[in-house]
User: Fold these one by one.
Assistant:
Number 1:
Amino acid sequence: MERSLVLIKPDAMERGLAGVIIGRLQGEGLNLVALRMLHMDRALAERHYAVHKDKPFFKDLVDYIISTPKVDAVFEGRGAVERIRTIMGATDPARAAAGTVRKDFGLDVQRNSTHASDSPENAEKEISLFFTKNEIFD
Ligand code: UDP
Ligand code: MG
């Protein structure tokens, strides 16, 4: 079974959207196997987004992602990574397809409501940053 890390980002937390977004994923048949609320420190945020450390938006992105506590979740299912990316939609809400989470709730390219892993390999690495093995259920 494939797993993916989902983060409900500060813009969605501030508007009370965590439950709605988690509900959409569960409604698509994805299995919720880990859940918590966490206010990341800068070091963890920089590790999570390390692949973007040379991008011009990196510092702003880290400042934003640590601006409020957020909900962290792991979902499991056949093809979960790609299915969840499709449900979330394109990075920029303005370019995201109709009916996607980012189209419906995202505010702009940074404040796009959610993070979702982009490959099964990255998912396993990301999940291990946020959850220990005994915090993930089946
Ligand atoms: N981001 C940004 N400006 C950009 C591109 C991305 O602030 O021009 C932020 C946005 O919050 C995005 C995150 O950086 O979700 C990670 O970027 P990535 O390209 O990995 O997009 P994702 O995988 O989240 O769709
Ligand atoms: Mg990404």
Note: The longest strand covers residues 31-38.
Number 2:
Amino acid sequence: MTTATGRLTFDSLDPATGAVVGTHPIQDAAAVRAAVAEAGAAAVRWAGLGWVERRRRLLDYKAVITRNIAGIVATVHDETGKPEADATLEVVLTITHLDWAARNAHRVLGPRRVSPGMMGANISATLEYRPLGVVGVIGPWNYPVFTPMGSIAYALAAGNAVVFKPSELTPGVGVLLAELFSEAVPEHGVFRTVTGLGETGAALAGDPGVGKIAFTGSTATAKRVMAACAANLTPLVAECGGKDALIVDEGADLPAAADAALWGALSNAGQTCVGVERVYVVDAVYDGFMGELTRRARKVRAGEDYGPITMPAQLDVIRRHIQDAVAGGRAVLGGPESVRAPFVDPVIVEDVPEESVSVREETFGPTLTVKRVADVEEALEKANASAYGLAGTVFSGNARRAVELARRMRGGMTAINSIISFAAVPSLPFGGVGDSGFGRIHGADGLREFSRPKAVSRQRFALPGMNLTSFTRGQKELDRLVRLVTFLHGRRKR
Ligand code: NDP
């Protein structure tokens, strides 16, 4: 669409009705460049404020978000179609992360003395984490507040300015988040949103003024973003998709496990990067678990308990995966007829061959494949046999075994006897391995992700007869050094 001024715009739609809920400019490479340049100047002012003043402003931002929960929830609901209760949960979780990032940035990143070691006895060594300048955040639509704010809050707390490109499906949420920041912190222009389609994101990733890109989205797009970043050696944190598994062990609380599997699979219509897509249940408890699962699943309704599929093109993927699953396995609930655009009713299929696309590729819909396995070792082997490695879940009656399984599960996060509980703990890092990406948001690692370590070594006094970094150095100094290193490191010691 072109406005009277000749500016290109695009519409944001309510996915449930198709109604236009907003119109936003398509910002081109020049507009992105200008935003990054302005953010670069703001970054200097923001970094210059120091820890205490930044913390105060970020806590003000948190308060403004908290006071505007209703407005944010309404915008998320309008643009994604998700129930307002789910959107509320998303915003509340975001608030706890913003609070943690603001309160912990100084402790995690501030200057500290580190031991110089025996060989550096005359050195005072300090380490601190400096901001990168401008962080470009490229976000998805499925959790349009929680997911990008996992980067934005931590990047701001680390002393960076942020230019945010929200998904073209949720631009209104992105604009609102930046507007609320300006309300709390009017003087700096530290956090700005640019709207547009994929090209706007590509321009941000390729802008030489950006110190780091925080990308959240599909693995395929992450590869394109990485290629754009390569032109300027811009570092990247990539939070991509997943095919997360839930393991049900002997002695597990079966009603709780079924409840968690169902919510993990169906909430947000399955459009959750850390949603449950596969379940592996040990033989001894399989029938009990399936009874609990299907009884509960029959009561869940698309359009009531969860919303529509936000991105119309995803309906084709979901339909294809359901067809593939029922062709190879046994439909327990629903089937291809469950797709009634824009909604998809719950689908559960058991005993689908492991090599099927519905078991291997991210479905991003309200579907679940369930497999009977002999024991937890087989469950773990199958759960880990994925190119993705984002998160996972273990339900077990044996706490020790559950922890051991969790540690061996491929992926960045595992929840035990609960579902995605790690996401609600701000001090825990969040991110994946393999096709699920690299780098971490949240927690101390998430703060460090948006900063660079700065090492300073100050010589407090000269060591007599030990000036090793000089052309005046003689054999005697070298002999002394070898004697010292032999004394310190030459013996077999534990
Ligand atoms: P996409 O990969 O389609 O898009 C992600 C973002 O990248 C959007 O803002 C998109 O803009 C932008 N983009 C598209 N093309 C380019 C390009 N060439 N250069 C730069 N940016 C570009 O993902 P979705 O929005 O569909 O999100 C769903 C995916 O995100 C799923 O795979 C899901 O698993 C994953 N995800 C991962 C999370 C995690 O933390 N690991 C959390 C949430 C989701 P536009 O929308 O305008 O095309």
Note: The mean pLDDT is 96.
